[in-house]
């Protein structure tokens, strides 16, 4: 685990508003950001239960799949990934995320999108146990009580001066941890990467306070969707601040926060902390798609 640090962003905002980004993306070279936090206590629990195999779920460019594959190898587990989309079976070599996971020992089971929707049902899990034997189940996106416990460690004493803490939201685990560990003077703002209002109920399963809001205006059309405006924003942000942003989660969140500042959403003198949840491994796959669409690619280095 590498030390995480808060990087002040030297951007001039109206109303004396300041912005800092917590570089969780630097916590580990391959298991970055919230994936490291979510897996920490799940891997300890798997060891405590004497499990030797981790099984989890994800899509074609899933940060979670890549993280479980590497973390599993690092900690001595076999790993199995149930992958959404049976058309991907013969496209592993073309997919940087799946190729990385396979190179780190993950065994794949490709299922149709219809079958994938059954991933939480007991009968589906039993079928997987019949096929693969005993395993420790890590949910899609990694969110469970142990994941939330890990995410409660993101905020530290040095973050006490911030009024607002902002993060991207996928399955709700990261924001739940932030909500639970926030101080009374802090408001947590979540920026969902998916369309739909179901996340509020998911977060309430784990969150113990009411110090939070979801802002659902910055998903750019839904999960994995991206347009020229977002590409240009992410690239300009990197040029100016030397902080790479992923286009699925953190890039959309940062875009949203800066847009809200200019729309006077935040009171004067607000101190805003952005949580960089990692996810940079997915950029290679996204750039393949952007080239196919003849759009500019995302920059991650000079």
From TrEMBL:
What are the protein's UniProt keywords?
A: Pyridoxal phosphate
User: Which residues are recorded with the post-translational modification N6-(pyridoxal phosphate)lysine?
Assistant: 35
Q: Which InterPro entries match?
A: ACCD_DCysDesulf (IPR027278), TrpB-like_PALP (IPR001926), TrpB-like_PALP_sf (IPR036052)
Q: Which cofactor does it need?
A: pyridoxal 5'-phosphate
List the Gene Ontology MF annotations in alphabetical order. D-cysteine desulfhydrase activity
The record's active-site residues are: 62 (nucleophile)
According to the entry, every stretch annotated as the Tryptophan synthase beta chain-like PALP domain falls at 19-278
The record's comment on protein family reads: Belongs to the ACC deaminase/D-cysteine desulfhydrase family.
Q: What is this protein called?
A: Pyridoxal-phosphate dependent enzyme
Gene source species: Flavobacterium potami
């Amino acid at each position: 685990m590498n030390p995480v640090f808060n990087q002040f962003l030297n951007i001039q905002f109206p109303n004396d508003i300041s912005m800092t980004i917590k570089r969780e993306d630097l916590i580990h070279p391959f298991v970055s950001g919230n994936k490291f936090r979510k897996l920490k206590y799940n891997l300890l629990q798997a060891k405590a239960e004497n499990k030797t195999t981790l099984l989890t779920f994800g899509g074609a460019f899933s940060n979670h799949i890549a993280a479980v594959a590497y973390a599993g190898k690092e900690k001595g587990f076999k790993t199995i990934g149930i992958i959404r989309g049976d058309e991907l079976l013969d496209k592993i070599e073309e997919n940087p995320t799946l190729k990385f996971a396979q190179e780190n020992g993950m065994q794949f089971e490709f299922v149709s999108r219809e079958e994938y929707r059954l991933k939480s049902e007991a009968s589906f899990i039993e079928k997987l146990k019949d096929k693969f034997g005993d395993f420790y189940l890590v949910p899609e996106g990694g969110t469970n009580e142990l994941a939330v416990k890990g995410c409660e460690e993101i905020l530290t004493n040095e973050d006490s001066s911030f009024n607002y803490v902002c993060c991207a939201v996928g399955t709700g685990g990261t924001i739940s941890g932030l909500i639970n560990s926030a101080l009374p003077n802090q408001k947590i703002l979540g920026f969902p990467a998916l369309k739909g209002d179901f996340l509020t109920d998911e977060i309430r399963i784990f969150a113990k306070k009411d110090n939070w809001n979801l802002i659902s205006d910055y998903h750019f059309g839904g999960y994995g969707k991206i347009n020229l405006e977002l590409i240009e924003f992410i690239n300009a942000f990197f040029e100016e601040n030397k902080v790479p942003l992923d286009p699925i989660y953190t890039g959309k969140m940062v875009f949203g926060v800066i847009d809200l500042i200019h729309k006077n959403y935040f009171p004067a003198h607000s101190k805003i902390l952005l949580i960089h949840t990692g996810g940079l491994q997915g950029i290679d796959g996204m750039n393949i798609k952007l080239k196919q669409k003849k759009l500019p690619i995302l920059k991650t280095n000079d």
